[in-house]
Specification:
two-stranded antiparallel ribbon, 2 strands, about 0% strand, globular, Acyl_transf_3_dom, EC 2.3.1.-, acyltransferase
Length: about 400
């Protein structure tokens, strides 16, 4: 596989957007672990610009990275061991150390929990039971890491069953040309509008079929796309058209959301139309972003390697910082603009401190998602094809 800097930048940008998206979750009336005293309906409109594709894109890029890592050597067994260590160790660390503050803030600010954080840790968090509907201990935002590990193991199992035979030709035949855009888009429309209409992701692993139906195919697509010359050629031809369709679909989503905002029942057939438009917007945006990254971002920069390494530690810590800071701000009744500014500054500072401190300590590196034996400062030429991320 040739190195592709554009996919590095796309991954960095997708995770950065995800962090700002979770800050936005504080202000929308959708329900979050910590929310401003007076949620603002209109904030949902810009949030919906990235909502349909933000996570699917991350799974596509993760599938792409998995292909590069599998080809690095060490065989299938080495791939399984490496990915399990790189994903399960920070997942376990996150559940035990990073996450607990989030459910405690949610319970104290939204469900009347009266115990201190220390009491919560000693008596409740590791109780393997539900409190006010919250199952403890919790994965919270780290569900993504758990799902990614599961999909990686399913991929390894499929590779073992194939016995070294490649399905690349089949991928290129199925997703050649216009089909690369249309087939996944139709599948997402089918999932959101007809198979699971109105369903919400639970992130509980078992029974979260709407998420698995969306993200497992996206992950497998990324794996196949990584070795597809015809796939990259198709995105080069289609990305501008896909961008236009994504914008038109988003306009329809906004119109329906404006007519029937949060907590207002959407009459038939507009609910199905809303779900279908989201599916079209989601995959069209992914095709457009990959094509744009391939066309304009496939070049190196002195900051790219460090940002590539920082992405996973940032992801591990960011939501705990957001929820913790918002929990501390709530009693002061700040103006939403001030609240937002404080959250942005605190989240960026907290993520940077977590990464910069953790990368300097060798025994901490695996806990925050970095290679234990890797350099503290990544090599200039490192990319998705050489970085275990």
């Amino acid at each position: 596989m040739a190195r592709h800097y554009g996919l590095d930048w796309l991954r960095i940008g997708a995770f950065a957007l995800l962090i700002f998206y979770h800050i936005g979750m504080v202000f929308v009336p959708w329900g979050f672990h910590a929310q401003t005293a007076q949620p603002i309906d209109w904030v949902a409109i810009p949030m919906m610009a990235i909502n349909p594709w933000r996570l699917a894109l991350l799974f596509v890029v993760s599938g792409y990275a998995s292909r590069a890592l599998l080809l690095k050597g060490g065989g299938l067994g080495g791939f399984v061991r490496s990915r399990s260590a790189r994903l399960l160790v920070p997942l376990l660390f996150g559940v035990i150390v990073v996450v607990p503050l989030q459910p405690w803030i949610e319970l104290t600010t939204q469900h009347g929990y009266a115990g201190s954080f220390w009491t919560f840790l000693r008596h409740d968090y590791f109780g393997f039971a539900k409190i006010s509907g919250i199952l403890l201990p919790a994965t919270q935002h780290l569900w993504f890491v758990l799902y990614l590990w599961l999909y990686t193991m399913l991929l390894a199992l499929a590779a073992a069953l194939l016995g070294g035979r490649s399905l690349q030709r089949a991928f290129d035949a199925v997703f050649g040309g216009l089909r690369l855009w249309l087939l996944p888009m139709l599948w997402l429309v089918l999932v959101s509008a007809w198979l699971f209409p109105g369903a919400r992701e639970t992130h509980a692993l078992w029974g979260d079929w709407v998420a698995h139906a969306s993200y497992l195919p996206a992950f497998l697509f990324g794996f196949g796309f990584a070795g597809s010359r015809t796939g990259f050629a198709a995105t080069e031809r289609l990305w501008r058209w896909a961008a236009a369709v994504a914008l038109l679909s988003y306009a329809l989503v906004v119109a329906i959301e404006y007519a029937w905002p949060v907590n207002v029942p959407t009459p038939f057939p507009y609910g199905h139309l809303f779900a279908a438009a989201r599916g079209m917007q989601g995959w069209s945006a992914i095709v457009a972003l990959i094509g744009f990254a391939d066309r304009y971002w496939n070049r190196n920069h002195k900051w790219r390697a460090t940002l590539t390494e920082a992405v996973f530690p940032f992801y591990i810590i960011h939501q705990t910082v957001i929820v913790g800071v918002e929990g501390a701000l709530l009693p002061y009744g700040l103006h939403p603009a001030t609240e937002f500014a404080v959250l942005v500054v605190a989240t960026v500072a907290g993520c940077c401190a977590f990464y910069l401190a953790g990368r300097e300590v060798r025994w901490l590196r695996p806990l925050i998602g970095l290679r234990a034996n890797g350099p503290v400062h990544p090599p200039v030429r490192a990319t998705l094809a050489t970085e275990e991320a």
